[in-house]
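Technical note accompanying the year-one report. For the benefit of new consortium partners, we illustrate the data format agreed upon in the data management plan: each record pairs a sequence with a structure-token string. No post-processing was applied to the example shown here.
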Amino acid sequence: ILKHVARANGGAGSGGRQTGKAGKSTSNRRGLSTLGIDESVLPCIGTTPSLFISTKNLKQIEAKILEMNNLLLKSDGGLAHALLPLETESVHDLVGILKASNRWHSNSVTRKHVTVLERLLQWPSHMCYPALDLVRIVFLHPTAERLLLGSPSFGRGGKLLQLVFEHATAKAAAPETGSSASAALDKVADRNCTLSLRCAVNLFKYRNAWALCAQNNLFLLNLCTSNFPSCRVDRKLREAVGKLMLNGEGYVFLFR
């Protein structure tokens, strides 16, 4: 609050802030340390993460999950992966919680919802995209902060994160076959990568999760670099990679 007060009182002149040489701490006239950063850029570091916040397609996400679940029920090998009636109710309940964004302070995403999301992310890859988009929105809910902090790292202890990141790393390209099937599989992989990276971007919403993200910054950066080749032709993937790199580097700075 004080840094905004000092900036407002100082106006556009130099009276509101003092800029030190590079590498040295600077402070405004209130005596607040700015860690060598010009105070004018502080609102962009540690206060305004780039996020994917849209929740308008929740109904379509639920409908697509139910549609694919029906396909699994009717297929010979899909019955073991299909959701049980209680699990489909949990999906409906979760969507209702997320739609009521004005009540996020009083409702919560519980372990039963997370378990269903984990089940959905173990479906065949071409059927996972609605679940990945649902996880992206779940990571915006205040409950996600507690769920994330309960995992010691992205690599162990957090099954949901592991399943998300399995879709986020672009696999090494196979030899060119020129077949339409190969092109379709590449399209599915790129779509899943985009949605998974959006989930990773939303990890940065809560301050208490920033240290966890900073500890795993190299892993997050590797997710980005593995998708560089596809970014040239996929604008949505390029946007997700750019936001993840922006958030990652900005918040890692705070914990160095």
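Partners are asked to follow this layout when depositing records. The radius of gyration is 21 Å.
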